[in-house]
Amino acid sequence: MTLFWVVWTAVIVQRIVELIYAKRNERWMRERGAVEHGRSHYKWIVLVHGGFFAALLLEWLTGAGALHPFWPVFLALFIVVQGMRIWILQSLGRFWNTKILVIPGEKRVEKGAYGKIRHPNYIIVTLELIIMPLIFQAYFTLLVFTLLNAFILLYIRIPAEEKALGITGGSDPVNTD
């Protein structure tokens, strides 16, 4: 029981700190002329991520979730993923954000994690949405939010981001206003 509260609270606090960091970076980027893309889908990302924490909590409180027999392995993996998350934030530095912000004329960051993998942050988020529910056997949360996240990333967010960064020349399936 205590482990759930420690992990759940720690990740919520981490997300709040990241949002503060993102807001600071957003101000810095906008001062340099950053243009926001994908604004129309941002609310859905916020809703899915907020819903994830609410669903995980609800599943735990209703007794549907319990510590997985291999929870120490999943917890260790989750901690490794958090280290990778920090590497990603450091790789992007002031360019890391929860929004798609592009400063005209700036080169795309290709150092650290971004020099090795095209969308490392989205891989980390996906792993978090899988591993955290596994620790607590919250299989409803695991299934629903892994699928929602995959849909948002594959069909909305990544195409919008690649279009904004000039990675692909194809059409974007969503409005990137």
TrEMBL record:
It is found in: Membrane. GO terms for molecular function: protein C-terminal S-isoprenylcysteine carboxyl O-methyltransferase activity. It comes from the Bacteria. InterPro entries: ICMT_MeTrfase, Metal_cation-efflux_comp. Pfam families: ICMT (PF04140). The keyword Methyltransferase applies. The chain crosses the membrane at residues 6-23, 44-63, 69-89, 123-156. The keyword Membrane applies. Coiled coil: none annotated. Its main location: membrane. It is a multi-pass membrane protein. Keywords: Membrane, Methyltransferase, Transferase, Transmembrane, Transmembrane helix. One of its GO terms (biological process) is methylation. GO terms for cellular component: membrane. PANTHER family: BLL3993 PROTEIN. This is Methyltransferase. It comes from Salipaludibacillus aurantiacus.
